Structures are given as C-alpha cells and as structure tokens.
Amino acid sequence: MESSAGPNSSYILNLPAEIISDIVSKLRVEDKVPLLRVCKRFYNIAYPQLWRTLGSYVNYPTSLNPDSRQFNLQKLAQTARDIGVDAMGFHHTKKLIFRRGELGPASDWVNSGLLDIVNDQILAGKLKIRDVEFYWDDPVKHGICTTSSTTPKYEVSARNTILNLLAILKGYARLNLPRRPALKLRQRHAPSYVFPVGVFPLECITRLEIGYDQYDAYSGAPVDRTVKQIQLLTKVLEGTTDLTSLSLSGIRYAVDGPCPISELSGALAKLQDAFDNLKRLSMLELTFMLFHPSLFIIPPINVRILRLAQKVSIEWWRQFARCPFSNVKHLILSTAHIPRTTDGGISKWWSLDGSDMEKHTSEDHPVFNIGRLEIRSLKELSTNPGRYYHPKDLLTLLLEQNPGIEEAQRERYRALELEHRKTMAELASSAPGLV
Predict the structure, then answer these.
(1) Cα–Cα distances in Å, from 135 out to 138, 201, 214?
(2) By C-alpha distance, which of 84, 82, 95, 83 is closest to 51?
(3) What are the pLDDT digits (tens) for 314-326?
(4) Tag placement on the chain: N or C end, fewer CB within 10 Å?
(5) Prediction pTM value
(6) Cβ(212)–Cβ(234) under 8 Å?
C-alpha cells in the first residue's frame, strides 16, 4: 500500500504503535475508515480498531431513526455472506453492544443473521469476546421470553439467538478466553419478574442498572409481592459479586401505602447482607421509592461515589445520620419524600412508628433537624438545598464535618443556603400557613 501521507505527517507516523492505537480508539467509526488509506502502518493499526467494538454504530438516544442502524447491521451481515466470514475482521472484535430494542427476534441483529455469525465465531474460538453491553428491554414484548403474570419462561431456540449468545457466555469457562467476559446490563421500566436471573452469567456482570416495578405507580404493592421483589433483587446481588457499578431505580410515582416496614424486615436483612458482600462496588446509585421510604441501605465498604435520590422518610434521615459512609468521597443528594396518601391526606410514611406525624399533622414539607452526622470522608458534595428535600441543618453539618470539601464548593453551598433561607422567610411572611 502506497503512503498518501504528506511530509508534515512524518512525526505522527513515527509515534509508537501503542500511542497511535490509543488515539485511533477515541475516534468515531466513520473517522477511522479514512485512516486505512493513509499508509500500511496506519492500516495495520486502524483495521483492528475498526472491528474492536461491534454494534449498530449509530449513537442516538431513542429509536427515532431505526433505518440508519438497520442498514449498517444488514450490510455487515450481507458482506460476510458475500466474501466469506473469514475474510472479515471478526477475530479483532472484543466488545459487543446491544442497544435498546436490539435483542428480540424481530431485531436486525437476528433478522440479518449477524448474531448467528457472532455466536459461531465465539464458539469456534475466533472471536475472543471481552465485554458485552446489553439493554435488557422488555423481553416479553420482543419475544425473548414468554411469561404468565408471575413467571418468565426462556427457551433457547434457532429463532432466539440472543438466548443462544447468553448460553455461550454462561459457558465462558469452555471458550479458552484470556479472561471471563465483563457484562454491562441495563433493565429500565420493566416489571421485576422478567429479570433473567437464570439466563445471565451473574458473576460476569460488572455494571448493572436495574429498574423495579415501575408499573405499580399509585397503588402500593401488596406485602407478599414486595417481599418477592426484595428476594429477587437479593438473588441477583448474591450472584453479581464482581459488580463495580450499581444503579437501582424504584417506583417513580409512589404514594402512601399500607405496608409497614416491619413486615419486610426479614427480607430486607438478607438484602443488606447481599449489599455487604459487594466488595468491588465503587459506585452506587439509588433512586425513587425502593420498597419502603424508611429503608436505608448501608453502602458496601468500598463505595466511593454515592448518589441518593430516593423517596425517604424522617426515619431514613436518622439512619443516614448514624452511618459513617467510611470511604465515600463524592456524595450526590437529591432526595424527595411522599407527601400525600392516595386519598389526598398527609402521608403516614414519614416515619417508622408515626410519631413524627404527630408533630407535622398539617405539613406537606415538615421542617426538622438531625443534630449530628457520622460522615467525615467527603471530598465532593452535589446537592441543592432549595430544590431537594433535606433536614434543616444537613448542609451546615456536612460542610462542618467534612474538611476535605474544597473551599470553592463551600462558598457555593453557603450562598445557596442563604438564598434558600431568604426565600423561605419571604414565603413565611407572605403565607404563614404554608411553612
């Protein structure tokens, strides 16, 4: 191959191959292709990078433009059939990405035959897979499984090639891979009973985003169903001991419900044990209403980044105050509360025993202090006292007891707190009954 590089490109051409490869890896696919024509050296570096990640190659947030994605996958599979799979670069592929809507039998991964090619290449030992990202969309909707109202049923078949891939990954020990594959899994806005505990190699999942029971929005799930959800999550976490990042999302639009936390205590104790065993977890995110507003989950010991965006009670804040968060360096707080019952009354889920409600019988936003905090390890804090629901003295205590927070952040939060207090004072003077 004759070089088309100009005289000013000699410096780049003389860089070590590792540096050039690292630069090329940061480029988009469409920007890597022209490098194949620069010279033989660039071709030998860029070609493996071009194949390193196999996916739809079109970065769009929703399925607004599926045709562009389908064209790429269809064309890739057709080219493999035309010139032969061995003439392609599948042996350079290390990572697979399945975006939203790309797992079902009707998807282009399956219809094009591309997933069959990938499965065959992995089984033949030609594709040494290292990483796989899944968006685990509603498997019932996309025909990945059949289910009753309580139990999913997954059946591997010639048509269900995504389950074939999962079966191959689950048997990774027989594939002679350099290391076991790392899986990143997202499951959002789906009923919890469709999570495929028995289908995935749980020990391979390093990053997990899972949403639970978004459809029980207003009713409050029965106790037995809530316990089953807790048990399922516990089973997942007991298997995913290699997790480094975990995001759990509960019910977004929860209102007051009939379930006291005491009826969940046995299942919740086992759930906490499962969290404690996540020794490699460094990032934890908890959002919306997770089983009960008074449920406080103690983060695993090595969590450095913690985002708490739950719907919580006053009792939750008491437990927060007692937790040392030993190694948490960055705390993101955007907590909310459940102000009303289904019939419009004041929520009884403010506390464990209702005593707090006796003090706040007419308040949607009760004002209270927590007095002290155990947390001392923070280097960075992200919150907004005017937007999110906090105890009155929380921000002051966090700044006082965490000297590692930079002064610029301290000044910013002092200004925000002063502004919030001024707003609340003005509101109190103009409408005394509201605050």
Answers:
(1) 9, 15, 17
(2) 95
(3) 889 999 999 999 9
(4) N
(5) 0.81
(6) no
